[in-house]
C-alpha cells in the first residue's frame, strides 16, 4: 500500500490542505484530551492555515523541513521537523506528524518521519500522553521515553529521544 502514497516537500499552495489535515487529525486523536471548545472553534482552521502559510514562506522557518503525503491527489499526512526548541539540545526535533486515522498502519507515517528526519539521526519529540498508538509508533522507530514531562493547556506530553545510529528496522 505504501506505493500508493507520494511524499514531497510542502509548498505554500498546500497551506490550507495541511491545516485541514492537522485540524481533522486533532479532532480524531485528541477529543477528550483537548477541550471541545478548542477543537470545535470555527477559527481553528483559519489559524492553522495562517501558521502553515508562515512556515512555508517566512525565512524565520528556513531551518524547518515540512513534508506532505498524498493519496489519490488528496493530502493525508503532514510532518515537520526543525532545530530543537530547547537551545541546550543537540537533537533535531520532530514538531509534528499527523496522518488521518484511516491511513494508520499503511506505512505513510514512517515515510513522513523518514522524510523530515534522517532515520539514523539523533532526534527528539514530544507526544501526548496518553496516546499509546503514537508512542508505539515512535518506539518502533527507535525513540524511547527519557522521563521528561510537560503539561501545556491541560495536555500532558512526554519527551521521547532517539540517539544517532538508532535504526528503525524491526524484526
TrEMBL record:
CDD domains: NAT_SF (cd04301). Keywords: Acyltransferase, Transferase. Gene3D superfamilies: 3.40.630.30. It comes from the Bacteria. It holds the Pfam family Acetyltransf_10. Residues 5-165 form the N-acetyltransferase domain. GO terms for molecular function: acyltransferase activity. Its EC number is 2.3.-.-. PROSITE patterns: GNAT (PS51186). Signal peptide: none annotated. It is an enzyme of class 2 (transferase). This is GNAT family N-acetyltransferase.
Amino acid at each position: 500500500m505504501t506505493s500508493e502514497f507520494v511524499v514531497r516537500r510542502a509548498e505554500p499552495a498546500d497551506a490550507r490542505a495541511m491545516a485541514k489535515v492537522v485540524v481533522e487529525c486533532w479532532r480524531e486523536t485528541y477529543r477528550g484530551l483537548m477541550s471541545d471548545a478548542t477543537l470545535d472553534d470555527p477559527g481553528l482552521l483559519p489559524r492553522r492555515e495562517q501558521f502553515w502559510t508562515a512556515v512555508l514562506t517566512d525565512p524565520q522557518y528556513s531551518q524547518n523541513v515540512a513534508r506532505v503525503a498524498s493519496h489519490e491527489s488528496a493530502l493525508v499526512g503532514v510532518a515537520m521537523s526543525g532545530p530543537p526548541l530547547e537551545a541546550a539540545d543537540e537533537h533535531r526535533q520532530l514538531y509534528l506528524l499527523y496522518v488521518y486515522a484511516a491511513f494508520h498502519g499503511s506505512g505513510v507515517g514512517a515515510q513522513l518521519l523518514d522524510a523530515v528526519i534522517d532515520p539514523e539521526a539523533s532526534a527528539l519529540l514530544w507526544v501526548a500522553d496518553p496516546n499509546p498508538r503514537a508512542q508505539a509508533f515512535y518506539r518502533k522507530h527507535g525513540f524511547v521515553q527519557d522521563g521528561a514531562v510537560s503539561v501545556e493547556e491541560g495536555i500532558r506530553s512526554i519527551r521521547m529521544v532517539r540517539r544517532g545510529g538508532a535504526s528503525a528496522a524491526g524484526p
